[in-house]
Every structure is written in C-alpha cells, then in structure tokens.
User: Fold this.
Amino acid sequence: MGPGSSFACAITLNSALTPEQQRLYQDPLVIQRILREARTIAIVGLSTDPQRASWFVGSYLKKEGYRIIPVNPKADRILGEKAYPDLASIPEPVDLVDVFRPAAECLAVSREAVAVKAKALWLQLRLINLEAAEFAAAHGLAVVLDRCVKMEHARYFGRLHWAGVNTEIISARKARL
Assistant:
C-alpha cells in the first residue's frame, strides 16, 4: 500500500530525508501507534518560555491528556511539572522521548532513551540525526524524525482538518469525539 492508497497517507513535502528514510522514520502507521500507545512523554529541551515551540507542544500534549515530564537542567518546574536534568533522573517509566535539542546532541539523548527503556524516540521538526535514529532503532525503539509531535497528533487525532488544513487524510468515517 503506497502513499495515498489508504486513509493515512504520508505528507512527504518539505522533508530533507530521502524516500527510503521517510519510509523508515516517518511512517504514518508508526506515528499513529506511538501517539495512541504513549501516555508519558519526556520532552528533552522543554523551555520555560511560553513563546518557544517546545512549550507550546508540551502545553498542547498536556491538554490532550498525556503525562508530560520536562527535561531541562536549568529549570525546576515547567507547565506545573517537576523538571529533571536528564532522562536518567526521571523516577518513572517513559513511553516517548520527544527531543527539542540541536541535532548534534541527539545521539546522546538517543543513548539515554535506550538506557531508560523508553519505547520511542521522536526528533522534532527539522531535527535529523541518522546516527541517533539508527542507534535507537537497533535497540528496539520506534523512531520518528523531522516531524512535529503536536502537528501529527492534531492531524491524526485532533481537529486540524476542521480549520481547513489539508491533513491528507480522506475518510468517510465520522470522527470520534
């Protein structure tokens, strides 16, 4: 089944990844599974500044019912949650590690995600580090690169299409509220 042949076709525009890398790291079914199964999301690089994308994403995900764990060594609390300096300091299991750090730092974060037995690693929009992705995938984590978790959640589970945004999802199914 290729793009456009199901109700969950991929958006492939504006990606720096090759078509093969897109199949590996931007698979719509993997993205949907991660978002459906994850309950606890550690956001590495979550900012205290409400004007930053990481804060907006964290705020959105929290409102959507996810447990958000901020990972920021310079903060005590973000979004009303205790912040931790690194993934190893988090005292509970983490389902998804969402990364808002420079690409050069992503391999170290990938190693931490594997060490804490996270189920998935997600590098935000415009973050591409193939070594980090390959390391995580080789250790059994689902991996997404160069996608925004908030945008993907809104596309598949939110109401992004109600605002007239082309989500590239065609379905005769009535959305569940």
User: Anything to note?
Assistant: Residues 157 and 176 are 9 Å apart (CA to CA). The mean pLDDT is 88. The first strand starts at residue 40 and ends at 44.
